[in-house]
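Let's sit down with a protein and look at its sequence and fold side by side. Once you have written the record down, we can walk along the chain together.
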Amino acid sequence: MAGTYDDRDGKIWLDGQLVDWRTANVHILSHAMHYASSVFEGERAYNGKIFLSRAHSERLKKSAEYIDFEIPYSVDEIEMAKQQVLAANGQKDAYVRAVAWRGSGEDMGVAAARNPVRVAIATWEWGAYYGDAKMKGAKLDISRWKRPSPETIPVHAKAAGLYMICTTSRHAAEAKGCSDALFMDYRSYIAEATGANIFFVKDGVVHTPLADCFLNGLTRQTVIGLLKDRQIEVQERHIMPEEMERFEQCWLTGTAAEVTPVGQIGDYNFEVGAMTRDIAEAYEKLVRS
């Protein structure tokens, strides 16, 4: 599959039925376009099986609840729809995007309780999220924006509005020749990258930011499980930026990123070490098992 994302062959599941890719459109006055009333999931299918598929569907429903709407399909129905799209597009290894949003309706202001909730699922072939950085180690900028306090926004929802600063931060990073950007949080602790969680290694111990103001990624949770299975100590805690000077290894985790080593963040350098490689290989083996 090639071409721009609005001009491709294939099928998209839209509001309960498969439609041609090019006709999967929404009205310009959809509430989500104006007020970010949208939630989504990013998933990967390996050999025809979506890794942690049901957990993603459950999180989609929960994210909608966080921003005050209800998805009109059950988890089972969402699960069936994802399989229908993969089959219709003839894909076994693919990225899966489920999205739900407030559409156009009687309301066109901040409040939109009377507008219908719409749901779509698309799949496409997508390689390494960071390109060759997955082998050589990604280079990260440090964003000027910070992850907000849980008192200001529903930080545990995978909601479109939370990604505004991700887009601007990644654009700034790419302009500097970086793969991504690292956020601090509202307290100036290390938080996450624009679409991935982060891990550090020092003296055989793994350190990762406490997910108290950002999404506790499903890949993050999976990797923590892999580390604990290996009897590796994992400290989930608040991490100050200056601690990066003493860390030896670093990697990112996410459905799109999978496990990607990091070679540099700002002025701090890291080796692509044995533990990083082992966890990346273990994750690859797990998702394809």
